[in-house]
């Protein structure tokens, strides 16, 4: 029965997410690890919703999609199957609703912060906005027209090479729209395993931006800048932004990774990508059976 297979996938994603949140091989290939995280989250959602709907619509014998099509004119369902149908639809609606609500909140927060920046910031060099604040701060405010903001304290703290490395990191966030990668995870309640998932994905995003910043420049510049940020008085970035040094982030892990890079074997990368494809395709296939 397809709903049983979907239920097994949904259950299996939970320990898989726990293992992935504790893994360290992901630091060697953060982009692929992010893809794997996205596939794991999508697989959980599709499998859980599909298992509930598949059980509810089993009497129609047409699978999840076929059962949904036949539902309006079909026979009445038993009480347990009606409950499963309502639970599946409620879960789908709540996940979509939380994602939309999180998106609206972020857009509004960024609009307010942009309005604030027009009052307190002035244009600096290299396409940045500068805020006259003595504490160190550097962050990207994503959007259709992304902004990279730095403080006066940052200009005093870093030399020109270190500043260029930090700006390259922030512009990487802006170009690759890492905020959209993070949004589905931030839309979920931050508790237990979900909190560890969010922390893991957030760190991988920072490592991805670190890698982008290393193009055509030595790793020592960014590593030194991160250490300076970590030891200097700093101003926290707004929650709607992406900071070079998130509050409470594992700085030394990033610094060690920059200074002592270790290549990830191609077999590990291939296995991770294959797992991501299977995680995404299997629930979708089971929905159609």
TrEMBL record:
Mind telling me which residue stretches traverse the membrane in this protein? 32-53, 85-107, 266-287
Tell me which Pfam families the record gives. Answer: Peptidase_M48 (PF01435)
Q: Does the keyword Protease apply?
A: yes
Residues annotated as domain Peptidase M48: 129-204
Q: From what organism does this protein derive?
A: Actinocorallia longicatena
| Record bears the keyword Hydrolase | yes
Q: Which family does it belong to?
A: Belongs to the peptidase M48 family.
Q: What are the protein's UniProt keywords?
A: Hydrolase, Membrane, Metal-binding, Metalloprotease, Protease, Transmembrane, Transmembrane helix, Zinc
Protein name per the record: M56 family metallopeptidase
Q: Which cofactor does it need?
A: Zn(2+)
Q: Per the database entry, which stretches of residues form a coiled coil?
A: none
Gene3D superfamilies associated with the record: Metalloproteases ('zincins'), catalytic domain
- How is the co-factor bound, per the entry? Binds 1 zinc ion per subunit.
Q: Which InterPro entries match?
A: Beta-lactam_resp_regulator (IPR052173), Peptidase_M48 (IPR001915)
């Amino acid at each position: 029965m397809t709903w049983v297979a979907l239920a097994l996938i949904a259950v299996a994603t939970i320990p898989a997410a726990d293992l992935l949140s504790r893994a360290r091989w992901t630091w060697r290939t953060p982009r692929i690890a992010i893809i794997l995280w996205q596939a794991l989250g999508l697989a959980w959602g599709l499998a859980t919703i599909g298992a509930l709907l598949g059980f509810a619509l089993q009497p129609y014998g047409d699978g999840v999609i076929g059962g949904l099509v036949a539902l309006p004119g079909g026979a009445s369902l038993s009480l347990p199957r009606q409950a499963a149908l309502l639970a599946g639809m409620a879960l789908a609606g709540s996940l979509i609703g939380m994602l939309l609500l999180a998106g609206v909140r972020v857009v509004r927060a960024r609009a307010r912060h942009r309005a604030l920046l027009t009052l307190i910031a002035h244009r600096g060099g290299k396409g940045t906005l500068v805020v006259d604040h003595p504490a160190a701060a550097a962050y990207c405010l994503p959007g259709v027209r992304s902004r990279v903001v730095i403080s006066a304290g940052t200009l005093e703290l870093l030399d020109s090479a270190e500043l260029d490395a930090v700006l390259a990191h922030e512009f990487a966030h802006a170009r690759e729209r890492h905020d959209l990668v993070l949004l589905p995870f931030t839309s979920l309640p931050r508790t237990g395993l979900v909190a560890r998932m969010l922390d893991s994905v957030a760190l991988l995003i920072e490592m991805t931006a670190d890698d982008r910043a290393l193009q055509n420049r030595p790793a020592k510049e960014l590593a030194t800048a991160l250490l300076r940020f970590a030891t200097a008085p700093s101003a926290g970035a707004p929650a709607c932004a992406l900071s070079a040094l998130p509050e409470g982030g594992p700085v030394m892990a990033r610094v060690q990774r920059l200074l002592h890079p270790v290549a990830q074997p191609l077999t590990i990368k291939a296995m991770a990508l294959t797992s991501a494809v299977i995680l995404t395709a299997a629930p979708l296939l089971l929905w159609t059976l």
